[in-house]
Amino acid sequence: MEKVKTDKREFIKYSTLGILGLVLGGGMVFSPYVLRAENRLRPPGAVDEKKFLALCIKCGQCLQVCPYHSIKLADFLSGHGVGTPYIDADERGCYACSAVPCVLACPSGALDHHTEKPEDIKMGIAVLEFPDTCLAISSTPVPKGYNEKMHKFTDSVVNIHELEEKLLDKFDQFEGKQCTLCADMCPIPNPLSAIAMVSDSGGGNRPEIYDGCIGCGVCQEVCPTTIASIVVKPRVTYEEYYLNKK
């Protein structure tokens, strides 16, 4: 009987070590892919990604004070930064609040407190990734029901802020009109410093990005095409993307 108990203990011991080894080994194998997955859109004021991951204490304070419910917390399937805040611009961009409350709420320095106003925000840069699908370029009116996605998102929110209600009212006014959503919904105080609709060689208009773009992701959120024609490149500057390509 004693031998059976001993064998059982040994089996559990080595089975546990074996499983632990597989987990650690798997982490070593897959870690490059996990790291690559961390190129996500962070809230305003986010410091360098590695420093951000080291400083963020995953308290969720930035999420709680965001009036637009723009900020989410990464889950286990989102990479190694579990619990860290990010913004999914396909669902809800950052609306660049004048007082930048998410930064004020951050207690650890992961969001730099020198980011005091919308113009200080540098999250990334907008890029017309798929011009062939852009409704403005093809002079296609904004289709009926384009705003269902935003309404569905807002309906899922428990406590809707009055700013979100005003946002919906503005968003609902574009149906059937020539598409200027990305430019007209830009939330920064001087949107023409970031984006404007300019004449396209094909006869329509196209969004043109300027150095005032803060990479908030609103243009990506409101784009009415099935896959957003305009997207934000996280942690890329205007100079890096546009000037270095010339």
UniProtKB/TrEMBL annotation:
GO molecular function annotation: 4 iron, 4 sulfur cluster binding; metal ion binding
Keywords annotated in UniProt: 4Fe-4S, Iron, Iron-sulfur, Membrane, Metal-binding, Transmembrane, Transmembrane helix
Keyword flag Metal-binding: yes
Domain called 4Fe-4S ferredoxin-type: residue spans: 43-76, 83-116, 205-233
Alphabetized InterPro entries for the sequence: 4Fe4S_Fe-S-bd, 4Fe4S_Fe_S_CS, PSI_iron-sulfur_center
Coiled coil ranges: none
Keyword 4Fe-4S set for record: yes
Transmembrane segments: 12-35
Name under which the protein is recorded: 4Fe-4S dicluster domain-containing protein
UniProt organism field: Sulfurimonas crateris
